[in-house]
Design a protein that fits this description.
- With 213 residues, this protein is α+β, with helices and mostly antiparallel strands.
- Helix content is 32%, strand content 24%.
- The chain has five helices and nine strands.
- The strands form two sheets. Strands 1-6-5-4-7-9-8 form a seven-stranded antiparallel β-sheet, sandwiched between helices. A two-stranded antiparallel sheet has the order 2-3.
């Protein structure tokens, strides 16, 4: 059941998309003053595969994306997760019930990529189609200079893992359920997201509230 506050937040986000005209959602500022210690988050971190359909409030979605791979040093453009050679080649796509969006870290916004519900296309498990959010980590090989094909795959995989772990730790601190997934029909999902040929899907990650027994 969605409470009134969450419903109003969801409606506000949808109206923002219409108001900005370019399919962009300006996210609220991330809430960086946490009350859970790193050690507590590490103790709580776990994978969950049973999710409620309850949507994430805008402020939670905002802080999740910032925690995963947001800009934490605006003067240099530094991010919350490391990347080889500072390529920052990992792009986060968010599959929500109304569409798939790309996270724009510089503007801290979601930019519409494809309208419509693509959640079920982000994995093979049944729960991905009804969980409120699926993140897709995509490596933009075009940002990786003259690296060999082997090095591109190696570094992009490591960098996506850093981002996914950041998301795990935020979820542990915020009381959210989370699971990272490698079972993805990458060719099908890449076509659905209209990815160019030099962008490759690395991992997906489902986030939401745990389903209550």
């Amino acid at each position: 059941m969605v409470d009134r506050r969450q419903f109003l937040g969801i409606m506000l986000m949808s109206k923002t998309v219409l108001a900005q005209g370019g399919g962009a959602i300006a996210l609220p500022p991330p809430q960086t003053a946490g009350t859970v210690s790193l050690m507590q988050a590490l103790r709580s971190r776990r994978s969950t595969r049973e999710f409620s359909s309850r949507p994430l409030p805008p402020e939670v979605l905002s802080t999740l994306l910032w925690s995963a791979f947001g800009i934490n040093r605006p003067d240099s453009g530094g991010r919350t997760a490391p990347s080889a050679h500072n390529w920052q080649e990992i792009e986060i796509f968010a599959a929500l019930p109304d569409g798939a969006y790309r996270y724009d870290a510089r503007d801290h916004a979601l930019r519409l990529v494809v309208a419509g519900d693509l959640r079920a296309a982000t994995g093979v498990q049944e729960f991905v189609g009804t969980a409120p959010l699926n993140l897709v980590y995509v490596a933009d090989f075009g940002k990786m200079g003259e690296a060999s094909a082997e090095d591109r795959t190696f570094y992009a995989s490591a960098d996506a893992g850093f981002v996914a772990q950041n998301a795990y730790l935020y979820c542990a601190a915020a009381g959210l359920a989370c699971v990272v997934r490698g079972l993805v029909d990458r060719r099908k999902l890449a076509a659905a997201l209209q990815l160019p040929i030099d962008q490759r899907i690395v991992l997906a990650q489902t986030v939401g509230y745990a389903r209550q027994a």
